[in-house]
Amino acid sequence: MTDTATLERPAVAAAASLELTHALTQTLYREARMLDDENYKAWTEMLAEDLHYHMPGIETRYRRDKTDQVTDLTRMAYYNDSKPEILKRLSRLDTGTAWSEDPATRYTHIVTNIEVEHTEKTDEFRVFSNFYAYRNRNERDEDSLIGNRIDIWRQTGEGFQLVKRRAILKHNVMLSKNLNIYI
Amino acid sequence: MRFERIGREPDYSRYMDLKEGWLDRRIFSDADIYEEELYRIFARSWLFVAHESQIPNSGDFLTTHMGEDAVIVARQPDGSIRVMLNSCPHRGNKVCFADAGNTRRFVCNYHGWGFDTAGELKGMHEEYCYDAGDIDYKNHGLKNVAKVGSYKGLVFATFNGDAPSLEAWLGDFRWYLDMILDNEEGGTEFIGGCIKSVMSANWKFGVENFIGDAYHAGWTHDSGCRSMNDGMPFPPIDMQNSYHASVNGHGWEFGTEGVGDLVLLGRPKVMEYYNKIRPKMAERLGEMRSKIFGSVASASIFPNVSFLPGISTFRQWQPKGPMQFELKTWVIVNKNMPDDIKDEVTKGVMQTFGPGGTFEMDDGENWENCTTVNRGVVTRHERLHYRCGIGRQIEHDTLPGIVYRGQYNDANQRGFYQRWLDMMTHDEFGKMPARPEPQLGNVAETRDLPGLFAL
């Protein structure tokens, strides 16, 4: 993973142009729409082959406790996946027996607070954003997942592809029975 | 210590007939029954509180719950472990607000009462406001539980001074437990972190699912199995060579093919690893246990801990009212595994049995619906069917416990509810029948016992 830009922000990073910021903002909105529509084929086409998709589990710790809960990849995580692993999870939906997705869950992904920066790689950009992912299913099942993301997006011939994502969900106890959602 | 409640002496035996194989649905939602469970089961049982590897150093602590009582589990300077109420004796506030960490003191945020890691009161804000004799430092500490015990890395505690020893509580179930806790030199450890989620379901549905419900797996988890294994359906069940074994409410359902759960994990490197150590495992635990480990299997320790040997999810169903539980999940690995295998296990567990796991996702909705639908005022008076395999009890010359043939069975579930009934009914532990009478006797170590009658 040393070949790609790091998620950690350097002391000084150059903000992207209005044009580039607009292009990546539109990319994030399009991604959210793909996820809302459960159009996972289109979504996974937006994922780079060397993707790392990470959502760590966050414990409640005192401020003085320096345990690295975010970048230590050996700890438990909701997602700590490569692209093949994401595809494996998604293949569950093609079996016809994913009972808890039928009737379908209704999703809305809201993406805000987008900032775009250049990285040490000319074709890769660090994108900060916040998410609000809302789910509702059956009669009155609902939950709200809120947090921050840091991404690395790579410019390719066919638009931008997601190379790295770190999504920090703000829950300690996840207030839902499952996480049948991508963020 | 006595755990009495005033005014109600219901006959809980009317809620089930386990010889006939039915349960009354009210035990899954009734608020009075739930309150009584907190007194009679959670305040009197040995309860899992930690794995020793979570708190290796002096001053390491974690917080958890015993029933609905908040507790701190803390490693002492002498290496022992203490478990105490996370509640200040002054006004009852929490004295520890973190999930885990390291500390010398637990200090209440309200009036600054401070306690050492053993729970002893050491001082407070503006101590001069008390007159001599107002505070008895020795007796105003954090209330420690009655007993703490450890079995091969798993730490248990009980509020009940009359509880039998932990070894006796686990009894012959240790023969089974050693398959996950002691299948390799060095024992086990938990991976860092703990993932918690909430389900609007009765805690018993989680426990009974893991204690014996192999039956649901091929149907509920068809999609999970296929996704982890390139479209392959659930491994076939051999009803002749698979079993349910129940010991005092603990239960383990298992095949003897050795690979089923390892296949479901979907990590070939982990399979390779266990195949490599299996000959040693056979020397350590005997041929039979080396064949059981890794098979399609699931298990629960009474009252509220479950795990999947081979898949390596380890979990606790924490009661939060009659119709809600909090699920705490960890990953258990062998300490001596290479780091890359530990990593493979961790990823595999989170991709199958994390909240976003391909198996876990299909369980929660079933248990929630079982709970809420069973509550209907008419529905609750209809009996539930627990008869599967009721005529298939066998005597087995290797397997301890109450053994039934065929892992599609409700036998362990019946064993769990029998123990539930025993605890809800009997005031004294000594009067509770052993189910079954212990066969291993007082042996300290089951490693030397490849088979019960091969001694």
Automatic annotation (TrEMBL), chain A:
GO terms for molecular function: dioxygenase activity. The keyword Membrane does not apply. It holds the Pfam family Ring_hydroxyl_B. It comes from Novosphingobium kunmingense. Keywords: Dioxygenase, Oxidoreductase. NCBIfam families: PRK10069.1 (NF007479). PANTHER family: 3-PHENYLPROPIONATE_CINNAMIC ACID DIOXYGENASE SUBUNIT BETA (PTHR41534:SF2), BLR3401 PROTEIN (PTHR41534). InterPro entries: NTF2-like_dom_sf, Rng_hydr_dOase-bsu. Belongs to the bacterial ring-hydroxylating dioxygenase beta subunit family. SUPFAM superfamilies: NTF2-like. This is Ethylbenzene dioxygenase beta subunit. The keyword Oxidoreductase applies. GO terms for biological process: 3-phenylpropionate catabolic process. CDD domains: ring_hydroxylating_dioxygenases_beta (cd00667).
UniProtKB/TrEMBL annotation, chain B:
Residues 47-129 form the Rieske domain. SUPFAM superfamilies: Bet v1-like, ISP domain. It comes from the Bacteria. Pfam families: Rieske, Ring_hydroxyl_A. PROSITE patterns: RIESKE, RING_HYDROXYL_ALPHA. Coiled coil: none annotated. Keywords: 2Fe-2S, Aromatic hydrocarbons catabolism, Dioxygenase, Iron, Iron-sulfur, Metal-binding, NAD, Oxidoreductase. One of its GO terms (molecular function) is dioxygenase activity. PANTHER family: 3-PHENYLPROPIONATE_CINNAMIC ACID DIOXYGENASE SUBUNIT ALPHA (PTHR43756:SF1), CHOLINE MONOOXYGENASE, CHLOROPLASTIC (PTHR43756). Belongs to the bacterial ring-hydroxylating dioxygenase alpha subunit family. This is Ethylbenzene dioxygenase alpha subunit. The lineage of its organism: Bacteria, Pseudomonadati, Pseudomonadota, Alphaproteobacteria, Sphingomonadales.
